[in-house]
Amino acid sequence: MTLRQVATEAGVPPRQLQYYFGAREHLLLGALEILNADAERRAAERMDELGADPSPRALVRAVLLELLPLDDARREAQVVHAAYFVRFLTDPGLAASVRDSPPALEELVASLLRHGQDLGHTSDAMNPEAEAAFLVAGAQGLQPPVLLGQCEPARAVELIDLQLNRLFP
């Protein structure tokens, strides 16, 4: 898609779009930021539904379930993310813009696992960083099979719960 096509679709002059975004790559990254902010807002709303003082396990579970296409909004977002992923594979400039970003989800899950350790909900011998990396990668790895219909969403949730049961006995 060209800047001109995006401008036409948005109903703004192409020059205005160029003024705000510059190159097409900046437009793509800006759109990705909007998509991520919207997903974070919806995730925060679902986290609020957990109540005033959710357990670390419940919070980790909620974070991981956000990565699964369990409803239309998450499914659509993950399809768009998949398109971005393919673009990142073929465009080194765009890939560089995300490659060096900190692994925020892993850091969040690790902090929740450490909190679980502090509360005595998980083993002190557990490595929160390694477990967080595994959990996030596992949830992300379930996305394609669920999107393709090879794995039922309920089965994906069950697999997440099995891992959490291992960490939070």
Automatic annotation (TrEMBL):
Coiled-coil ranges per UniProt: none
Xref: SUPFAM superfamilies: Homeodomain-like, Tetracyclin repressor-like, C-terminal domain
BetI-type transcriptional repressor C-terminal domain residues: 56-168
Recorded superkingdom: Bacteria
The protein's name in its UniProt record: Transcriptional regulator, TetR family
